[in-house]
Amino acid sequence: MARKSHIHSKIFVLDTNVLMHDPSSLFHFDEHDIFLPMITLEELDNNKKGMTEVARNARQASRFLDEIVTGAQTAMEDGFPLSINDRNCSGRLFLQTKQMNGELPAGMPTSKADNQIISVVMHLQQQYPKREVILVSKDINMRIKARALGYAAEDYFNDKVLEDTDLLYTGLKALPQDFWEHHGKGMESWQEAGHTFYRIKGPLCSSLMINEFVYFEYDNPFHAIVRELNGNTAVLETVKDFTHLKHSVWGITARNREQNFALNLLMNPEVDFITLLGQAGTGKTLLTLASALTQTLDHKLYSEIIMTRVTVPVGEDIGFLPGTEEEKMAPWMGALEDDLDVLNKTDENAGDWGRAATQDLIRSRVKIKSLNFMRGRTFLNKFLIIDEAQNLTPKQMKTLVTRAGPGTKVVCLGNIAQIDTPYLTEGSSGLTYVVDRFKGWEHSGHVTLMRGERSRLADYAAEVL
């Protein structure tokens, strides 16, 4: 195993949860070697049955292993090359072929799978003292145990989109006070279809993104969206003012700058994919539903609204639920019910009968679907809302967004500070992934909502608790 050319490369011992989290992790270790203990293969085998994401990943990991082992022309002791199918990793895969017993402390039972993997790490480090042996696991407790025994352990970071979520694209930029002095020379301005456009030149233009909102809050407040970029030249379009009652959307007006920007995206039929991030109470679901109802029922742009979310309970699970798919999803859709109640009260003159009729009409156009049955579907002319999107993995997010057919708008809502799915972090969440990958595309937009607008009690609780 200690090949001379790779004497300085590391040996990574993979825990099962890494393969079940990302089966392609086998090909992400560059020139370093991978060692799989036999217990890892056993655990993969135990988890391969079923239709869950974990079971699917376990089966995919087994397929990759089969591909690596079957195509190799080398002896088992020399390892199997990982550079199959043009993958640019020069490391090798080693499988445990004999009993490896590192001396575990007396209190650690050897029957436990985690401890068996740690004992393999200990054995390998003794066998190859000149090479660095590192345990890779998504299990925090296992990493703590390995470090307590003096061995290197790391989390699996390759699926992280961003190391620091503070660097995540917010979709808006404050313009400096001297902006017009540096960018106002030779500025062109014109009006088209009721919108005012400005063509500006200057150093700041190169750092802007298409569909990014810019705002200037000094003498003459200026709110605009970036429409075109060409080197040091940008075209800005002033945004529609949804804070004014005459521009209200289903009776809802924007209460702050970010909500106004969000409504500009939501009401623009040219924008197919929107992500809204924000703490609880910033109005993500309410604004999205109001714009969805207006465009579906009044403007007839979409045939129906489809709402879906990941069913991850915060407390104890409530067990099996009777009824149809829609009825089973109903307990998860409390937020939808609350917002529909708010939106239904916006018409003061309708009376009880009018409101009841509107409610029935809305209910007939809003469909609640489970994520589990999304594969293979195509949505035509639908307004698809994915709530609690921070609990989706990048792969699940891809599965959902690629369901969109012609004329469909997809809106992802979430708060990356509230992730309930095990092994997902702020950096590796599917929501972070799409925000980062879609920024700058002319048919997508993103806004991070800052201010809570629920009540003074909710705002104060969010601050002090």
From TrEMBL:
Gene Ontology cellular component list: cytosol
InterPro entries per the UniProt record, alphabetical: P-loop_NTPase, PhoH, PhoH2-like, PIN-like_dom_sf, PIN_dom
Domain PIN residues, every copy: 10-144
Domain of life: Bacteria
Membrane-spanning parts: none
Signal peptide feature range: none
Similarity remark: In the N-terminal section; belongs to the PINc/VapC protein family. Belongs to the PhoH family.
Lineage: Bacteria, Pseudomonadati, Pseudomonadota, Betaproteobacteria, Nitrosomonadales
Alphabetical list of Gene3D superfamilies matching this protein: 5'-nuclease, P-loop containing nucleotide triphosphate hydrolases
GO terms assigned for molecular function: ATP binding
Listed name of the protein: PhoH-like protein
Keyword field: ATP-binding, Nucleotide-binding
